What does this fold into?
Amino acid sequence: MASTCPNCGRRLRWYDVKAECKDCGVSIPNFNWEARLEEDADLAAKKSLSFHRTMNMFKYSIWGTKLRIVRIIMSFLPAVGFLLPWYAIKSDAQSIGIDMFGIFTDGNSLIDLFKAFFGNMKLFFLNMGYEGSNGVLTFSMLALLFMLLSALFIVIAFFMILFTNKHPKSKLMVIFDALSICSAVVSSILFTVGMKGAANQPAVNFGNIPLYNISGKVMWGYFIALVLLCVAFVFNFLVMRAPAKSHEELEEERLARKAEKEAKEEQKRIEREKAQKEAEEKAAEEQARIVAEAKAKLEARKEKKNK
It folds into this structure.
């Protein structure tokens, strides 16, 4: 119930349960219902327009042009690069492959390294302290950190395509792509620096994974991942530089498609009605012919009988 009467402004109490105002007698639920109905219709039209504009921009930002279709695919593919082997650390004891499941490298996988780190983080930091935070373990873990940052930035760049659909020329995707590429490059530099100092550290413990006489190298998966990241950057940059349609243009195209669809449906309806009418006329003609033949036969029998 309204807090005041919409006609006279009388304040309504909680016990005013009748539909009519005690002072002016107007029906509060039905007061000025035509105007309120028009307001509701206008509000519904505005919400419908806003919905269509949002959907238009969302569809256009993802597959509105051939370039954007290729862009969304190329922005997803770098995720595959992070499943491939980036680095390999070999030793006389155990080995570690920086790929997700250890399919492409021998020894412990990236998942095993995560388990070791989160299983005893204190041991990792203790070992880093022993090597003065400037050894194989430190540089390898920093390389892994920047690898994860690269993955995070490319995921953010992908979702920015969806979240910035109202701004088709947004630079955010390009920025996060660039951050992802830079993080990947920094990761490889840190790993290479760490492996160059491996000769001075005959033994290193990666948590519960002991390594002796360490050697390491950057694997082929890193270069594939870097290429995919650069490709994603290029396509996002091309989309950013390409002309983009406005809300008004997209709405005009939508209305044109809607009108064309309605015209086709109307044409089909007319053709159905025409075909139905022709069928009815044909059936009526056939019925008239049958009746005429029956009458003719009846007349013939009567004439024959009269003779």
User: Anything to note?
Assistant: The chain is about 65% helix and 5% strand. The first strand starts at residue 87 and ends at 90. The two ends are 94 Å apart (CA to CA).
